[in-house]
Amino acid sequence: MRMPKARRCSRSDIPSGLGAATGVASGPVIRANVTIAMLGACPGLLTGEGRDIAGRVLVATLGADDALSTAASTSSLSTNTPSAFLADLPQRHHASHKGSYGSLAVLGGHDGMIGAPLLSARAALMNGVGRVYVGFVAQEAPAWDPVHPELMLRHAEGIDLAAMQAVTIGPGLGTSAASSACLSRVLAWEHTPLVLDADALNLLAAEPALAERVRGRTGPTVLTPHPLEAARLAGCDVQRIQSDRLTSARTLARYFGATVVLKGSGSIIDNGSHAWVNTTGNAGLATAGTGDVLTGMIGAMLAQGMPAATAALAGVWLHGRAAERCLSEGTGPAGLTASELLPAMRAELAAALRRAPS
pTM of this prediction? Predict the structure, then answer.
């Protein structure tokens, strides 16, 4: 047995009642403790309701390892594993300085939502980026972060976007006129790597002109919607998104010309031509702020020069592994907080860097 590799299929080696391609149970379904998949795991075992229904998923390769490896190398669907991003992880060198690892701007934080961009910024800092600037939309914003005084805090309009290697926008941004103006200003920098999350996505759904500007960008773009945000972007309901998560992610990725992270159980990462199903993480991530942490992680990877797809793959995988590490150490899943992910994420990043090619 070995860890599952996703493939599109319609086979009998899946709990009865569970959609092989979608992970949706449309009626009565058998809930398994362990599911043994033959040759490869259907996506439905790894995303949506499938992870709860299938239980532990094992793959019987039936002695066809070489053939399976060849098929995996040509497939447009796979599971997210470190082999997909390790080669792009930014290495640390003795002859380097903070400027060697990029500057990231994190923009958001409307009134009452100051914590969201701070979580993103703290995650970015602990994910290796050289400098992190936090820009708040709220006028009454903190001047410094007592937990991480390394962060540079100011009003959003005071951030010099020309000096940034990447920008993330959306955590706690709100949907006010000031929020929209902030997003519009960011989109003027069409070559700068960009992560769009939370209310930035809601603004795209509400203002088609902003969405068109995203579609016209030439720089790397990553969108990180949860199912409701994805539904708003697609002009449909959540049930439609969840009924076929792979197709939903692919549609958004191609429409926006972006890498899309459709969050949820078995997050889907799609760059418009290839899709990955993430298998790390647990129910501890179902709490406020964990999405903000992920946004900061991906932004940090972009600022350090990683391509959009591998930045998203690394961020999502490490994010899930951090939750698993917390659980293994006795924290969660109930009661796990977003802030507790940060040291665990840093430890997982360190472990990944030790495995990465020099």
Answer: 0.93
Q: What is the CA radius of gyration of the chain?
A: 20
8 Å CB contact between 84 and 310 = yes
**Which residue in 50, 51, 30 sits closest to 282, CA to CA?**
51
pLDDT confidence of 282, banded at 50, 70, 90?
Answer: very high
- Rounded to whole angstroms, how far apart are CA atoms 144 and 139? 14
3-state helix/strand/coil string of the chain: CECCCECCCCCCCCCCCECCCCCCECCCCCCCCEEEEECCECHHHCCCCHHHHHCEEEEECCCCHHHHHHHHHHCCEEEECHHHCHHHCCCCCCCCCHHHHCEEEEEECCCCCCHHHHHHHHHHHCCCCCEEEEEECCCCCCCCCCCCCCCEEEEHHHCCHHHCCEEEECCCCCCCHHHHHHHHHHHCCCCCCEEECCHHHHHHHHCHHHHHHHHCCCCCEEECCCHHHHHHHHCCCHHHHHHCHHHHHHHHHHHHCCEEEECCCCCEEECCCCEEEECCCCHHHCCCCHHHHHHHHHHHHHHCCCCHHHHHHHHHHHHHHHHHHHHHCCCCCCCCCHHHHHHHHHHHHHHHHHHCCC
**Cα 183-187-190 angle, rounded to 5 deg:** 160
Structure tokens at 114: 């100051």
- Give the phi and the psi of residue 18 in degrees, each rounded to 5: -100, 130
Structure tokens that stand for 356 in this block: 């990465």
Summarize pLDDT for 121-155 with one digit per residue, the tens: 999 999 999 999 999 999 999 999 999 999 999 99
* Residue 83 pLDDT exceeds 70: yes
Q: Residues 156, 184: contact at Cβ < 8 Å?
A: no
Q: What span, in angstroms and rounded, lies between the C-alpha atoms of 310 and 263?
A: 16
- At 312, phi and psi to the nearest 5? -65, -45
